[in-house]
Design goal:
Shape: globular
Number of helices: 12
Number of domains: 2
Number of strands: 21
Distance between the termini: 58 Å
Strand content: 25-35%
Helix content: 25-40%
Largest sheet: 9 strands, mixed
CATH class of the largest domain: Alpha Beta
Bound molecules: ligand LLP
CATH topology of the largest domain: TIM Barrel
Structural class: alpha/beta
Length: 415
């Protein structure tokens, strides 16, 4: 159920009118719902039931400390891709022993820190990385728990930029070559082979590719077992899609998880998942104010105070995200291209949107909780947006708007 609802012509997040949030905190501002994050995580937990698996939230989707705190308090594990994300998880009160470390280029320093705090598992993506990890762990006198990320060569049927499980992608090791790397790893005193991992892509709107990938991964698990290498877990990555448009029909979270557990059959394996988007996307909106309306022969433009530096998904992935006024203006609706102030033609939030708005109207871009703020930049020397979290009738400021001075605080004039 969405927590963004219309009440008497006003758009609300939980019990808070978004118009009030904009009044108090200005714009652009990201607004997240604690309830929506909680419900999405609970849908995964319901899928696990009493299966000994682990839901590791993919921190990259939204790494605000308060978001991580909410999830840590619900018992989540975390999927990280950098030491920076690890430090955030720890600062938020996350449990290091429930952290999996993904990513194609972990550096020795990052491995050392992860070993020091005792993470659950390193998801290793190449032989070269496996060798460095073995050496680093040996130097530290530690044993690194490892899982190999294999590339099952399955088409996730999603946007090419967020499709990761094909042979042509840079991610993981070829599933057919994995066995020799496992044998090597199993022979190292400083490594403990614990799992296998894959992630085939993001925003999957069908569940079947997950099950196809899982079948291939389980074949590998069986072959490894025949070779005396027994795994403890299978990590199917993230990727369950969300509804951006009304006719998007993403897989049901709880049912998909249950099916993945059923697919394990008699094997004594825990299921691990790394969902990001499906936990936070629909829990967030980006508030923005209309600065000017401008009409040319071809278009009506609504020029707003949020730009591609705040939300790059439309520019980068041709993403369509719903844009609604937080309060309808008493004017005739027109078709607008909603664009930002940045000097790029690609700077748009949405095109051809029918909106009843005027100068000063406030808009909410929905489904903006994932890959929104985290992908923001300071392009055009624009400070990054404020972030707030709604909890019932309360609003918490969870990140202050960046000040202009802070943007060049680390820069130096010559001499
Ligand atoms: N695990 C790994 C290894 C990943 O690379 C990712 C996402 C996830 C888990 C989480 O996937 P999710 O459940 O969020 O689909 N910026 C793009 C999405 C990039 C996804 C990158 N990897 C977007 O805005 O659509």
């Amino acid at each position: 159920m969405t927590v963004f609802t219309q009440q008497n012509g006003q758009l609300f997040c939980e019990q808070v009118a978004l118009a009030d949030v904009q009044q108090q905190y200005g714009s652009p501002t990201y607004v997240y719902s604690r309830k929506a994050i909680t419900e999405a995580f609970e849908a995964y937990k319901a899928g696990l039931g009493n299966h000994p698996g682990l839901i590791c939230y993919a921190v990259k989707a939204n790494s605000n400390i308060a978001v991580l705190q909410v999830l840590a308090e619900l018992g989540a594990g975390f999927d990280i891709v950098s030491q920076g994300e690890l430090e955030r998880v720890l600062a938020a009160g996350g449990d290091a022993s429930k952290v999996v470390f993904s990513g194609v280029a972990k550096r020795p320093q990052e491995m050392r820190r992860a070993l020091e705090v005792g993470i659950h598992c390193f998801n290793v993506e190449s032989r070269a990385e496996l060798e460095v990890l073995a050496a680093v762990a040996a130097e530290e006198g530690k044993v690194a728990p490892v899982s190999l990320r294999v590339n099952p060569d399955v088409d996730a049927k999603t946007h090419p930029y967020i499709s990761t499980g094909l042979k042509e992608n840079k991610f993981g090791v070829d599933i057919d070559e994995a066995i020799e790397h496992y044998k090597w790893a199993a022979a190292q005193a400083s490594l403990k082979v614990v799992g296998v991992d894959c992630h085939i892509g993001s925003q999957l709107t069908e569940a079947q590719p997950f099950f196809d990938a899982q079948a291939r991964v389980l074949n590998l698990v069986d072959t490894l077992a025949e070779n005396g290498i027994e795994l403890e877990h299978v990590d199917m990555g993230g990727g369950i899609g969300v509804r951006y448009e009304n006719d998007d029909t993403p897989p049901n979270i709880t049912e998909s998880v249950q099916q993945m557990i059923a697919n394990l059959g008699e094997r004594k394996l825990g299921l691990l998942l790394e969902p990001g988007r499906s936990i936070v996307a629909n829990a967030g909106a980006l508030l923005t104010e209309v600065i000017y309306l401008k009409s040319t022969e071809a278009h009506n433009f609504a020029i707003v105070d949020a730009a591609m530096n705040d939300m790059i998904r439309p520019a980068l992935y041709q993403a369509w995200m719903e844009i609604l006024p937080v309060q309808a203006a008493k004017v005739a609706a027109k078709e607008y291209d909603v664009v930002g102030p940045v000097c790029e033609t690609g700077d748009f939030l949405g095109k051809k949107r029918t909106l009843a708005i005027e100068q000063g109207s406030v808009l909410a871009m929905l489904s903006a909780g994932a890959y929104g703020f985290v992908m923001a930049s300071n392009y055009n020397t624009r400070g990054r947006a404020a972030e707030v979290m709604v909890d019932g009738a309360q609003v918490h400021l969870i990140r202050e708007r960046e000040t202009v001075e802070s943007l060049f605080a680390g820069e130096h004039r010559l001499g």
